Amino acid sequence: MSRVKILSRNSFFSVLILLNILILNACQSDRRIVEEIALETVVVEKEVIKEVEVIKEVEVEKIVEKEVPVELEKIIEKTMIEVPETSYPVSVTDMLNQNVLISKSPERIISISPTASEMIYKLGKNVIARDSSSKFPEEILDLPTVGSAYTPNIEMIIQQEPDLLVIEALTQSRFMKDLARLNVPILAVRATSLNDVTQSMKILGSALDVKEKSDEVIFDINAKIDLLKKNVDQSQDIIILISDADRNIYAAKPESYAGAVAQILGLGNLAEGMSDMGPYPGYTLWTPEQVATSNPDYIFTISPAPPPAPKLSTMLPMFPGYANLDAVINNKVKELNPILFMQAPGPRMINAVEEIKSYINE
Q1: What CATH number does the domain containing 164 carry?
Q2: What is the pLDDT of residues 272-323, one digit of tens each?
Q3: Residues with Cβ < 8 Å from 187, sequence gap 6 or more?
Q4: Using a CB cutoff of 8 Å and minimum separation of 24, what contacts does 83-89 make?
Q5: Do 219 and 239 belong to one domain?
């Protein structure tokens, strides 16, 4: 330690001698600048000497030569273990429980479902063509369409020469036989629950070589959902209704996507435990008898038909039995966004939960 002090003091005296020479030869205007430099130098030298007196030379060597490299090594090792790259060919089990072999990193992906499209883009990937119902994010609107989600056009899909097709398991599994003509991997995702959404994102992460991104997205979704669960009056009973062209009314069970959103907030669903009935998966027929024997705190409605078709929320009091319900009398009939709750279930589930919570907390 004394050796270091001597070197520092010699250096200090050398600087002082040099500054004296400069001061003698400089003009009056320059003398102030030189004096400031000398003052700064003295302060720096004093700080160095003080630091060397407190920290032993051996300890400095330990920090520089041993601790820093060890920490860097640990960080690199951790990254390599937790986020391995996908090694193709890769086999993934999709939401139809089928093993899908993907021979190389997909570069020409086609999605024929809004759910699939939004999941792919959420992971930072993109598609070359889409179904006509896929409209989010906005950039996807510039892409060619290959039919609708309900009637995909096989010939148009073939013309695009895809190397991966992504579908929605619940509504599009019936197309599997026809889609087999494409002779490309077909991957099915699903979004009837929060678990479905996160599991589908994980599957896509493996298939598209974006595991790290999928982990980040899944963590973000779960974290935001956990925050939204707080400060909710879970004593509230709700019902979520939708109507068909024949004016039949159906209620969303917890097994439906809309019902799953309400269940996240811990709200009581008056359709729970009933049998599926009608054209909508996870929904049951809500008869006038059931209306008469139920009195939900909130009624949420979904109106998929675009304007000028009337909203179900405005028509509901005209249906038998509804005008006398407390929710109708107290203006607690709320219209839900049909895109978030019916047409494009998926990673925007967070937005759907936020929407219901905003009405409950009004």
Answers
A1: 3.40.50.1980
A2: 999 999 999 899 999 999 999 999 999 999 999 888 999 999 999 999 999 9
A3: 92, 94, 100, 102, 164, 165, 166, 167, 203, 204, 207
A4: 83/211, 83/212, 83/215, 84/211, 85/209, 85/211, 86/206, 86/207, 86/208, 86/209, 86/211, 88/209
A5: no
Specify whether 130 is located in the same domain as 202.
yes
What is the pTM (predicted TM-score) of this model? Answer: 0.75
**Sequence letter at residue 285:** L
Least reliable range by pLDDT among 14-18, 130-134, 202-206, 326-330: 14-18
* Helix (H) or strand (E) run with residue 165 in it: strand 164-168
CA distance 142 to 137: 11
- DSSP class per residue in 246-286: T--EEEE-TTSHHHHHHHHTT-EETTTTPPP-SSSTTEEE-
Total domains in the chain come to 3
